[in-house]
Amino acid sequence: MAIEHRSGLLPYLFSAVSEDANKPAPLVLFLHGARDHGNDLNVLLKWGLPRFVNESNSLPYFFLAPQLPEGQTWVERESDVIALLDNFIASRPIDPSRVIISGFSLGTAGAWHIAASHPGRFAGLVAVSGRVPQTLETSQLDVLKEIPIQIFQGAKDEKLSIESTQQIVDTLRGVGGTVDFTVLPEGDHFIADEVYTDLKLQQWLVSQSRRASVAV
Question: Do you know which InterPro entries this protein is assigned to (predicted)?
């Protein structure tokens, strides 16, 4: 795992594909939760998807995880996340039709917002322990109907209700969206380790490709 700070961009972690450096590969863009704000990228490596990637010898996708300064949200830094993504795609052999965006908690709100604002950019969305941000009205969710979505939530999560998440799932399915909603019966809010290490999800991340009907 590499750590980079570049002038004008959010600092970020990234991991490259080691199998074939010249063959275009998928990219997973990860947005962290509130407790990982700051100026030390190493805190992202303590758990969840960044730790899984860091501890894996070889993965079939590029990985990118920017970090927010204290007090900021992903919704506020939307344009900077997209600029970082563009920079990353332009400088590495990444297949732009196979970019997955994922978030945990605060990062999930950012993932929903950014995917809805740029639906043609993503082949899939993974939402873990997070809600749709208030800036995104339920009626606007239909722009995500062409993006396969995976939602994960702990049944014992005191920060979120299963009912509110189910309403989002029903809305998306009602407009023709493809949504899988997984509830972890014993899970609380902090289910990221269990979710991201699941083999089925890891396979899903690399099996998605942006649908031809979605304009970039």
Answer: AB_hydrolase_fold, Plant_Biomass_Hydrol_Est, PLipase/COase/thioEstase
